[in-house]
Amino acid sequence: MGELYDRIGRTYTATRREDPRLAAAIDAALGDARTVVNIGAGTGTYEPAGREVLAVEPAAVMRAQRPPHAAPAIAARAEALPFPDRSFDAAMAVLSDHHWDDRAGGLREMRRVAERAVVFTWDPAYVDAFWLTRDYLPGFRRLQGMDIEEIAEHLGASRIEAVPLAADWQDGFLMAYWRRPEAYLNATVRAGISVFGLLPKAEVREFVEALRRDLASGAWARRNAALLHLDELDLGFRLVIAE
Q1: pLDDT tens for each residue of 36-87
Q2: Cβ contacts of residue 216 below 8 Å, gap of 6+?
Q3: Cys-Cys crosslink for 123: which of 11, 184, 224, 236, Cβ 3.0 to 4.6 Å?
Q4: How many domains does the chain have?
């Protein structure tokens, strides 16, 4: 993950801003935890205020973009956390687990070092629920990874909570612009989404041109008319919580 984000993460903060609805859900899931380790912490979004937080982030480019008030960050990987057992009240990870070299090992490491674990992740069963991955990015299916049930098993989760995305979602990850398709034509938006750094460049170019044509012709709007009046949509994002 560190190598990927050293390459694509240079403009990350331009589009990857904390959405307050997700921040509130994560804060609630952390319960009364006082000490928290954030795994794959990136630029520090979603790190809860009022708690003692330590960030783990392997990519130097991402650590360099953490604001002055962010929690201290160390260079380490989820699969080999440099902490004794039960060092923290809680461990958290926000859309980073799909990048770990050993995803199952990283999830188990979270439970080893913390009494509670909270992972915000995506359920690949929803791959066809989103027009972009269904209609435009066939290569995305090669990147799907672990089922949500397997994630929960490795984490020892006690519950899974759905997190629907509002139409004005502020954190620009892959599915955030489900009702704002023109955003995906913006190279800066795409640069903040890891999928576009993992797919072949030719496939990304083809996607951009196809979407541009469909927006201009009205084909996208006709195919996705049912979305245009929705305020939020469940696209498979989940909080997996182990207590």
Answers
A1: 999 999 989 999 999 999 999 999 988 998 989 899 999 999 999 999 999 9
A2: none
A3: 236
A4: 1
Find the angle CA(95)-CA(177)-CA(160) to the nearest 5 degrees: 40
| pLDDT, tens digit, 9 for 90 and up, residues 141-169 | 887 689 999 999 999 999 999 999 999 99
Extract the tokens encoding 68. Answer: 């002055």
Looking up residue 216, the CATH number of its domain turns out to be: 3.40.50.150
* Cα–Cα distance, 93 to 40 (Å, whole number): 6
Neighbours of 200 (CB within 10 A): 9
Tens digit of pLDDT for each residue in 16-30?
889 999 999 999 999
Of the candidates 87, 77, 2, the residue with the CA atom closest to the CA atom of residue 37: 87
Chain mean position to CA 209: 26
Which of 78, 86, 34 minimizes the C-alpha distance to 56? 78
Range of the domain at 149: 2-242
Other C-beta atoms within 10 Å of 149: how many? 12
